[in-house]
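In response to the reviewer comment on reproducibility (Comment 2.3), we provide here a single inverse folding case reported in full, input and output, so that an independent group could reproduce the run without further information from us. The structure tokens appear first.
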């Protein structure tokens, strides 16, 4: 599904005149699957808004291993924190599908945040949710074994009963700091117990209370 700038939660409710002005400042780009949109360490001098498709955010460890931070779907804006503090991109983002983006110049975004309290409030809520998610993931990595980490990941994403594995089991493992083999072992264990069903590219949550209990138990 293709979105417009107005569909981004940060810009919801903006006056039509404001929205037209913002749209007129945007640079519109399309990228094929596999194309890098932005690279870790490069200056974040634009707010990149994903309007169609799916993107992988990743960093490279000191040992040269790729660590997947997230798989992001439209509509979403990248690296809002870096934009606010005039810092570099914190991750390399690669298109997992064909994507369409709008690039908004940093001065225009900062002016809008300063002039529109509703935009600033929504931005703060988005950043707070990001920090909370990072806290959860750090806790998972520090005190949980792989099955409870997989369960926690599924609980956070499975409100509708179906959880897409856009990066496959290897992508899930990269997000939670586990190997594909250990993720597969955990998922198969849940499936044997009737807690989930594994489908093509997705996990179907059948018993959310049981999954939640596993997610809550540090091992």
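Designed residues, in position order:
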């Amino acid at each position: 599904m293709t979105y417009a700038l107005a569909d981004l939660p940060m810009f919801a409710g903006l006056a039509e005149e404001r929205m037209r002005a913002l749209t007129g400042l945007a640079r519109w780009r399309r990228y094929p699957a596999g194309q890098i949109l932005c690279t870790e360490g490069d200056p974040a001098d634009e707010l990149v808004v994903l309007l169609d498709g799916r993107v992988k955010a990743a960093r490279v460890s000191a040992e040269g291993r790729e660590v997947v931070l997230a798989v992001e779907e439209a509509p979403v804006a990248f690296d809002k924190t870096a934009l606010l503090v005039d810092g570099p991109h914190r991750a390399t983002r690669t298109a997992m599908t064909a994507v369409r983006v709008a690039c908004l110049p940093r001065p225009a975004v900062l002016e809008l945040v300063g002039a529109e309290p509703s935009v600033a409030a929504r931005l703060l809520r988005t950043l707070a949710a990001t920090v909370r998610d990072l806290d959860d993931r750090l806790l998972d990595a520090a005190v949980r074994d792989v099955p409870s980490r997989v369960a926690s990941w599924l609980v956070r994403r499975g409100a509708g009963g179906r959880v897409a594995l856009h990066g496959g089991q290897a992508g899930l493992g990269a997000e939670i700091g586990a190997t594909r083999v250990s993720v597969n072992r955990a998922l198969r264990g849940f499936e044997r117990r009737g807690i989930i069903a594994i489908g093509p590219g997705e996990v179907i949550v059948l018993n959310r209370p049981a999954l939640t209990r596993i997610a809550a138990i540090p091992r």
